[in-house]
């Protein structure tokens, strides 16, 4: 049998390269109106009075009074209003939609609306904790009682913007009692469930269809539910097709971003070994909690990185501030922690005068070791051979030694990391309960009916290939249309590196059953997720297997730093990943290149900050992501390490490829400038400060 | 609503300008962004617009014994391709603009926009660029450094149009442009730097330094340069601290969303130091 990993052409190549793919802005409907958002001009306070101008015929203002259901966006934590009633908790908070046939007129109406506010003092300090978690492993804090010494450091990470090419957008229309939205989204059923609650509609009267998605990176996980609810409320009332698409600046100013984090570590050291780690993780949730608690828990679960630490005492807080709400972003808490723990372990070794590489290798997690929450790494871990491969290909040892010379300003850095695949904890079992369907048509075609979204990552290619391979038919005979909630079951959101491992696993099971019944004319196979019995997790106390499987990786980054301008130039990267089994090698390599670019960008380039609650980098001119010229040659090696419940052994790869980039580039810069790095992004401005002021 | 006029000839443009006030648009790569509105809406021009992009007679590159002349309508791409244009100016074109921009943007437009971060301005200051400015009744010449009076402020009368750039031919031993951007392409400078010198018999005959994005306009001081012209290369290098001290008060950058003043100042000085240290004695 031929190896499934062997690449085929991505099925969406042609429509995307030719420009024929239909994105949300390409869809025009008869009599379509446009919607724009009225937003607060203050950061915190209350609306006293809104004075609207005379609204002409066929123009509408839709606000909280029009919400027939609950004025809350159904996410994980119910604290985001669809439209504010009067309380303002961040700058540009949505107040109403202004809708009509001419954009010029809408802008004119928006400009002449007067709002009187009562302003209050905004909170930007991280003081108001709204979620707090704690867990111990082993002896927890008690291990510090008999430590020889304690090593402590603080690490900081900044905002990151998803910077998808296509901004947020929906078109909605009403047909009788039925409200339909077409949108650029990752999670059709998140939007549908939010709409049911907002409209107080019956499920059969709400339909959500995914249009071609021009990138998402987590930014279209929960945020679309907010604007989807706003638009659906308007559509149901006005009963005309309406388009709501964000301009780039609006998108960057108001949509969710990666949570900035501050991580404090204490390590209990005895006989030059880490006996235990105490950590506090603080993340800035922004003005609403939303997914922040789940992001915090993923960060905390990753606290020992790719290592095994026997004794842990881990606490974390989500702080509420009067800033734009933060939310899902590829990696989901792990990139913050993976940077911090990788730097911390390196810095401990340096403080102990032990070779960092040997020190790190000596504490690498091994099969059957216990995870941070006393779960078990049940599957083989290939890290030692993956590290050896990365070192050999990059000539790591020789370069590391040569670059120790402080005058040559070159550096090489290597990160070890993992990513837990699928939803954290019992999420898959208790919340998502994924269902997939496979339909055999009379003409011997098979149709995949799932809610998974191709946002560029290749789901349409890999799923069709997966089914075609199992059924032993041509990929042309496998149909996979964009999800439409009227036709596909809820296979869960397209997030958390779960799509191929979990949804693909179910689809593969359905396809195997279909293969046996292939002679039948027409039939449907449905499968529902069952957690492997051995996976047990206590959500409340953080005990057990937080993930069913783990993907692993090694990134090596080589850099040069300019002595004159402190700019960093990437010279080359080498990566080794264990994603179980690639369903399509080129698709995984696509994730590898894109993920690493986004990961190193997070580490050295992408600056975003707010000033008094206002995001300063509001367009792609000022928010700097790496271009093709900034990214060097990237070498990637994939290791097979099949996971029993993934299709052909596949695990998650979408997020894995991002989480190691920042620590690898930070370590490379540390090597080049001979100064310790404690925060990302490692900008030229920060490098200058370190070179001019910091001790070695 | 604003009016738009697409001039086909210089005369038509000058006549129009004589009649009423216009926003002049050449390539439009700055104007379109500064006046952008929502997608699907018209460009949000605040004034009537005079498009000069079709005036062929302003699209040229010429030389005589003394000068290089670049038309106000000459595209950056044409400048990049031209062997008549000094290398340092072609270098700045490739650093400052992506292919799409290069095929529509002009140097005169970059000058008219007068952004403190305008990359080409740094090199044009270094080269003592002069402008020819026309109105229906008058032609005048002005040095670029006198033409740009502040952030987005230029000394152009309502009835006038920049028609050409006049760049004196000079003979420098070496000169270069250094852009300090946040990444390697498609980015606005945090600061930029241009420099040049000529040496004869180990004596500095010409010395030029210009800094961009460290003050409201490009910083170039003939007074400071003059103090060190005539020195031997060795003396010049020995006087490095004096040179730095002379420029130090002229470099007054700001904090913004792209960088901060400490970095800009520090790097500007580093670039100056690197330039002086690398001057060769013939």
TL;DR of this structure?
The complex is a heterodimer of chains A (696) and B (282). Chain A is of the alpha+beta class. Chain A has three domains: 29-121 and 163-254, Aldehyde oxidase/xanthine dehydrogenase, molybdopterin binding domain (Aldehyde Oxidoreductase, domain 4); 261-424 and 543-693, Aldehyde oxidase/xanthine dehydrogenase, molybdopterin binding domain (Aldehyde Oxidoreductase, domain 4, 2-Layer Sandwich), CATH 3.30.365; 427-528, Aldehyde Oxidoreductase, domain 4, CATH 3.30.365.10.
Give an overview in words.
The complex is a heterodimer of chains A (696) and B (282). Chain A has 696 residues and is of the alpha+beta class. Chain A is built from 17 helices and 28 strands. Chain A folds into three domains: 185 residues, Aldehyde oxidase/xanthine dehydrogenase, molybdopterin binding domain (Aldehyde Oxidoreductase, domain 4, 2-Layer Sandwich), CATH 3.30.365.10; 315 residues, Aldehyde oxidase/xanthine dehydrogenase, molybdopterin binding domain (Aldehyde Oxidoreductase, domain 4, 2-Layer Sandwich); 102 residues, Aldehyde oxidase/xanthine dehydrogenase, molybdopterin binding domain (Aldehyde Oxidoreductase, domain 4, 2-Layer Sandwich). In chain A, the strands form seven sheets. Chain A has a seven-stranded mixed sheet, sandwiched between helices. In chain A, strands 7-15-14-13-8-28 form a six-stranded mixed sheet. Chain B has two domains: 165 residues, Uridine Diphospho-n-acetylenolpyruvylglucosamine Reductase, domain 3, CATH 3.30.465; 104 residues, Enolase-like, domain 1, CATH 3.30.390. Chain B is 32% helix and 24% strand. Chain B is built from twelve helices and 13 strands. In chain B, strand 4 and strand 5 form a beta hairpin. The model of chain B has no long low-confidence stretch (mean pLDDT 96). Chains A and B meet through helix 2 and helix 17 of A and helix 12 of B.
List keywords for this structure.
heterodimer, A: 696 residues, alpha+beta, Aldehyde Oxidoreductase, domain 4, 7-stranded mixed beta sheet, 6-stranded mixed beta sheet, 17 helices, 28 strands, globular, B: 282 residues, Uridine Diphospho-n-acetylenolpyruvylglucosamine Reductase, domain 3, Enolase-like, domain 1, 2 domains, 5-stranded antiparallel beta sheet, 3-stranded parallel beta sheet, 12 helices, 13 strands, 24% strand
